[in-house]
User: Fold this.
Amino acid sequence: MNSQERREARYQRRKAKRQKRREERCAALGSIDQVFSYRKMFFYGRKCCNGVRWKRSAQNFELHLFSGTAKRRRQVLNGTWKPKKCVHFTLYERGKVRPIDAPHITDRQIHKTLCNEVLIPLYTPSMIYDNGASQRGKGLHWHYRRIEEHLHWHFRRYGREGAVLQIDLKGYFPNAPHALIYQRHQQLITDPALRELADKIIRFSPCPTPGRGMPLGVEPSQQEMVALPSQIDNWVKCQARVEYDGHFMDDNILFFPTIEEAKRMGHEIVRRFEAKGIRVNRRKCSVTPLTKPFRFCKARFTLTETGKVKINGSRDGVKRARRKLKLFHREVKAGQREFKDVEQYMVCQGAYYKNFDDHGRELRLRRLCHAIFFGGAKCSGSPTPETGKASA
Assistant:
């Protein structure tokens, strides 16, 4: 047996072991009647009402939760359940217009059961550790800390030599290929009934292009999109042996010892994304030397000559805060707003900047607030420092 045959035999053994572990994980979940048991569906139905019990629809849903859970469980088991239409609305968040499709609360009960009992247990083992979006115990600031830790690790070995590669995916949710998601279901969900239910949610999801796109605001689509690039992530970490590969939903970040290696790997990763049908925004992909600051998810990272890592928040937030304070001053003078609302706003701003190395920005913002409301001559309608109320 030559070396090529030995490598192929080892690959087949590893492949068989991975498939066996997938089957064991799926068998541990149980059949569809065990996954969608009345107890589990009732439990997740109560969780769907958390935070929205002021809504009339949530009150009616919880009022008939005993009988409604039994009805929906029967529909899921006999295969007659179909998702209802989503409520479409638009949000303007962090400078971007985001179309949201909110599912009906009765569908959310089934979505939450499927995510927590099927998708998360089956998808998590194949995801890399530095995939921090929509994961329990992780999040955006957890990802910031991971980048800071690896920058320290990189500095101890290479100093400020090297570069950071950033790859941005274009229209991550609207351009998601359904065929790739169905392929993951076929590979990871071995139970036919559970796989058919997961496929049905994708099939009935509102999308402008047939066979492409996942809605924002639906919990299963969130889990599907978090785990979508796992195959490429595992190739980068295992086959390419990149020291750090992390991504927060559609933003990918990688560190390399040299700029040439970063450029070479960037072209290969982009090629693999596009081969899978995942579109890449080439205009936003960049290679930045570690001697310069770089931005990731609205935060700016700077590796200094001493090895210290500075993390600064979004600069645009300071501009918005200054404009809002001037607007609040006019409203307080006109009697349209109370001064306690301004104090609460400053508490929120301070809580944001305390997460970063932005003590100077927070101090300047507080000085501006004091100068606007308490500085200069007192005028009619201006608050007083002692009472915080507008003068007559």
Remarks:
- Strands lie at 87-93, 96-102, 163-168, 244-248, 251-256, 286-289, 294-296, 299-303, 309-312.
- Confidence is low (pLDDT under 50) at residues 376-382.
- DSSP finds 15 helices and nine strands in the chain.
- The CA atoms of residues 95 and 213 lie 22 Å apart.
